Each structure stands twice: as structure tokens, then as C-alpha cells.
Give the backbone structure.
Amino acid sequence: MFEDKKVLTGVKPTGTPHLGNYLGAIKPAIAMGKNAKEHYMFIADYHAINAEKNPEILSEKLKEIACVYLAGGLDPNKSVFYRQSDIPEIPEITTILYAYTPKGFMNKAHAYKAAVDKNRAAGKPDDDGINMGLYTYPTLMAADILAYDTDIVPVGKDQIQHVEIARDIAGIINAHYNKQLLVLPDYAVDEHVAVVPGIDGRKMSKSYGNVIPLFEDDKAIKKAIFSIKTDSRPMEEPKDPEEILVYQIYKSIATPEQLQEMGDGLRQGKLGYGHIKNMLLDAVINEIKDAREKYNYYMAHFDEVEGMLENGAAKARPVAQATLKRLKDAVFGR
Ligand code: ADP
Ligand code: TRP
């Protein structure tokens, strides 16, 4: 689909990834990168410091997310895999973009607006706890994207607005200098990727504490799966699978045949909740077991990952340097 496009994926190192992140974001991003002409994949650690100030937590989260992507099949020889903070041109480009970014863009950016709404709901002053990093975040994100002449940014729906802001800023600069200085990026939203429900039926999310863990041991995964909400109807009572949460979660991981088998068993009153939870457990473990082994290996040998990230930065930097030079030449009339 993106064979002739330059695709860039950014991920914030916040939170330990769960099964929903893996199925809904990490695996699709890796797959999309494999089909692109060029793929840039980076860990947005400058974005993370807006919210997290503890260096131990920051470095642990970065480590986890890097290892999860590698375990999930990201190939650092094909994708340019790097850490945002290893590219000093990004904050330089951001500074130039600021001069062309209408303040109103930041006022209406949803991450900032959501923080203000939260403050209002709690009866606090609008800007309580909001730092400039959060406020100006879409401009940094624009630099992340524009630095590499990105064509396509795969995102979840919540990030569409930020890619549009990047595109608008690029358009303003190109129009001002009447030159194609920056490539106008597009977003791509994968409509086929379903939201994975959590063990309480709401969207699986770290903020709801309803997750199925990703690369923990079988016991921890089993514990989460056996806590999935069920009711007290007996096995023999025929059930509509669509009303059964275990089945809903199974949908995001099972093959069509496996799904059919669970669906038939529920409709015919032949499968009880214990059975279907075991079926889900088997499917989850089958899905993750090879990746989990790789994950544990990389976590224990992070020096290798560190080397990959440094290599990636060495490939990414010249591209960002060229963009910065183009911008500086135009802006300062050099
Ligand atoms: P969380 O909701 O746990 O805080 P994030 O908001 O950090 O997760 O999301 C990281 C990525 O994972 C996003 O691209 C998001 O769309 C995806 N994602 C998060 N939860 C789910 C889910 N339950 N199902 C599918 N994708 C998800
Ligand atoms: N803002 C994105 C998120 O919260 C992460 C991100 C930062 C990003 N820079 C990016 C995503 C550039 C795509 C492109 O998930």
C-alpha cells in the first residue's frame, strides 16, 4: 500500500505495553513499516518528559518499548530505528517551526484542551500543572515528522489533528518562501484495527487497570484472563457470543476457524466460561510466546539494543541535518 512512500511511526515511551497496544498499534505499525519504501520508527522520549520526571522510570519505559518493537518483529536493518533525543536537529527545527506556528493551533490541540477540561472539571485553574512542553507538543511532533520528508504517518484517531497541524505548518512555510522546502505529510488510520476490550468490558487501557499483560509469564496472563467478567448462566444455556466478553477479546486474536468454534460452542450451550477462557489463554500465549522470548532476551542484553538505536540515529541524523540546512538557508537568507 505504501511501497513508494516514506512512512514514519512515533511512539511515546509511557506505560508498559499491554495486549491491546500490541494488537492495536505495535503489530500494525511494524507490518505497515515492512511494506513502505522507507520506514522511520522512533521513540518519542522528548514528548515523554512533559509528563514523567523520574529518570529511572523514563529509562525503564524506553527500554521496554524498544524491546517490545524488536520482539514484535521490527527489523532495525530495514527500519530506521532511533531515539528522538539522539537527534539534536529536532529541537532546532522545532525552534524554527515556532516562528511559523500560529498560537491558535496550540490552543485548539486536543492534548492541551483535554488537560484544561480536566482542570475545569476538578475546579482548578485552567493551566494548573500544564507545562510548555505539553502546550507546544504539536510543534515538536511536526518537527519529528517534517525533519524526514515523511509522506505518511500511521496514527490512531486521536493523533490525526497533530498530523494535520504538521501539514499546516509545512504549508505555511512553503507558501511564505514560495518553495517546496518541506514535504506535506498525510496521516493513515487503519480502520480495520479493532479496539481490544479489557477484562471489565471497557477499552483495554492502562488508565483503567483492566489490561491483559503482554510479555509477563503464563501465570500472570492466566490470572488476567480468568478475571474477565462473566455472568452466572449455566453452560447448557445457549448464548449469543456477541454478548460474551471473552469472545469479544478472542475476536482480536483468533483465526476465523477458532472464532467459529467458540461461537458455535456458545450458541449450542456446549462451552462453559472456563472452557472459553482457556481457549483465549491458549491463543494469547500462542500469539506472544516467541516474541516474549525475544523480549526477555533484549531486556537482558540491552547493550545490543542500545547499539541498534545508535546506528539508527546515525542514519536518521543526516536526513534531519539536510532539512535543517534547507530551512536555515531559507529563513536566514544564507
Ligand atoms: P492506553 O489506553 O493503555 O493508555 P495508549 O493511549 O498509550 O494506551 O495507546 C498507545 C497505542 O495503543 C495507541 O496507538 C492506541 O490507539 C493503541 N491502543 C491502546 N489501547 C488499545 C486497545 N484497547 N485496542 C487497540 N488499540 C489500543
Ligand atoms: N504524539 C504521539 C502519541 O502520543 C507520539 C508521537 C510523537 C508521534 N511524535 C510523533 C507519532 C510523530 C507520529 C509521528 O502517540
About this structure: The chain has 14 helices and five strands. The chain has a mean pLDDT of 95.
